[in-house]
């Protein structure tokens, strides 16, 4: 199968540090190549892949301070992809609504995986404009704000089974991994750790858009003796970081579409304590891979129960549910359905 994968340009594929969508695109692309498919990856030129790389610019947008209008780079990429659409059996986009107008007007089947939140009114407006095109959700919960789109399937994220593995280290702290923003709940994680009497290590990115929030709300909390900020970390650092944690704290307060850090923790055998928001009940199994809680009091109450969880079993559940191979097989099934549907439409048009 000739497959085009369209990645965001903000980070390389895979990202050198933080970057959830680009990390998923990398996992999917490499697994599709391993399965024998002919894959072309449209991404930034500093990406590393076994697929055929179609470099849309030299480097990721976040690493290039000369970029003033990132939208222009996206529109250039979309035009180039549309001109090459006939080279592929299926086009798989991960860049939201940007390519929908052009891709909707050419013959190659395509689908769009939506990686972000959908509960803003502008998103409902734009996606319902293209409501007949096929979309994939990354959790069932993600669909709720726009339930009547042409949802082809929910495909939960996955990653290579050997990317992150349990390490033989002693558990000494709680971990917070990801991004510092109001919805991610670092302030709650700091309070939970303090009440539990456990050190908290924070491996997180601070976006420019969240810098004022960090300075106002988070920075004053970071000077507490139980908090250690270690900054962004890469994949080679994650196994030891997550394996050394009693649990990953994920006290979010927003409709999380998936939450990749949860399965990264599970890959290392590390339990997750997470708020019941968004996708959390679809990813975590309460009492098996972690604890799903409603508030900070319940999070603190769950801490003594962490010792009841079997870290080897958590790792096995990751292998059963969240590998890149399972994710790729799910997507190939969707690709085949869309390709067959397009063939039937063409046949009907010829016979009409």
Structural class comes to alpha/beta
Order of helices and strands: EHEEHEHEHEEEHEHEHEHEHEHHH
Average pLDDT figure: 94
Give start-end ranges of low-pLDDT stretches. none
Shape: globular
CATH class identity of the largest domain = Alpha Beta
CATH H-level superfamily of the largest domain: Glycogen Phosphorylase B
> Any idea what the radius of gyration is?
21 Å
Could you give the distance between the termini?
28 Å
CATH architecture of the largest domain: 3-Layer(aba) Sandwich
Strand order of the largest sheet: 3-2-1-4-5-6-7
Please, how many domains? 2
Q: Your description of this structure?
A:
Keywords: Transferase. InterPro entries: Glyco_trans_1, Glyco_trans_4-like_N. Residues 168-309 form the Glycosyl transferase family domain. The protein is of the alpha/beta class. The chain has helices at 20-34, 70-83, 100-103, 121-129, 186-196, 211-218, 238-243, 260-267, 280-283, 296-302, 311-321, 324-351; strands at 2-6, 38-43, 52-55, 90-93, 110-113, 134-137, 150-154, 173-179, 200-205, 227-229, 245-250, 272-275, 290-293. The chain folds into two domains: 2-160 and 323-351, 3-Layer(aba) Sandwich (Rossmann fold); 173-321, Glycogen Phosphorylase B (Rossmann fold, 3-Layer(aba) Sandwich), CATH 3.40.50. Helix content is 36%, strand content 18%. A seven-stranded parallel sheet has the order 3-2-1-4-5-6-7. It has a six-stranded parallel sheet with strand order 10-9-8-11-12-13, with helices on both faces. Helix 1 (20-34) packs across helix 12 (324-351). 45% of the residues are buried. The mean pLDDT is 94.
């Amino acid at each position: 199968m000739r497959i085009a994968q369209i990645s965001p340009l903000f980070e390389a594929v895979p990202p050198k540090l933080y970057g959830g969508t680009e990390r998923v695109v990398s996992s999917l692309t490499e697994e599709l190549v391993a399965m024998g498919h002919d894959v072309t990856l449209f991404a930034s030129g500093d990406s590393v892949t076994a697929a055929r790389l179609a470099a849309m610019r030299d480097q990721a947008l976040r690493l290039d301070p000369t970029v003033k209008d990132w939208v222009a780079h996206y529109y250039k990429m979309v035009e180039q992809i549309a001109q090459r659409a006939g080279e592929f059996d299926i086009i798989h986009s991960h860049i939201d609504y940007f390519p929908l107008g052009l891709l909707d007007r050419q013959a190659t089947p395509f689908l769009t995986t939506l990686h972000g939140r959908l509960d803003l009114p502008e998103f409902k407006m734009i996606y319902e404009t293209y409501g007949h095109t096929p979309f994939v959700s990354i959790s069932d919960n993600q669909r709720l704000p726009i339930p009547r789109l042409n949802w082809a399937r929910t495909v939960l994220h996955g990653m290579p089974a050997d990317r992150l593995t349990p390490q033989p280290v002693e558990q000494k702290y709680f971990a917070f991994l990801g991004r510092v923003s109001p919805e991610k709940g670092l302030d709650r994680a700091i309070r939970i750790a303090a009440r539990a009497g456990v050190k908290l290590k924070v491996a997180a990115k601070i976006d420019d858009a969240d810098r004022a929030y960090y300075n106002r709300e988070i920075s004053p909390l970071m000077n507490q003796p139980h908090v250690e900020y270690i900054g962004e970390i890469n994949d080679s650092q994650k196994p030891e970081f997550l394996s050394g944690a009693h649990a990953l704290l994920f006290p979010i307060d927003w409709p999380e579409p998936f939450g990749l850090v949860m399965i990264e923790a599970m890959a290392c055998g590390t339990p997750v304590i997470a708020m019941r928001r968004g996708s959390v009940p679809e990813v975590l199994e309460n009492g098996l891979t972690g604890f799903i809680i409603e508030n900070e009091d319940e999070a603190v109450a769950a801490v003594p129960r962490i010792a009841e969880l079997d870290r080897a079993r958590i790792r096995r559940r990751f292998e059963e549910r969240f590998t890149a191979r399972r994710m790729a097989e799910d997507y190939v099934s969707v690709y085949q359905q869309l390709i067959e549907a397009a063939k039937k439409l063409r046949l009907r048009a010829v016979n009409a």
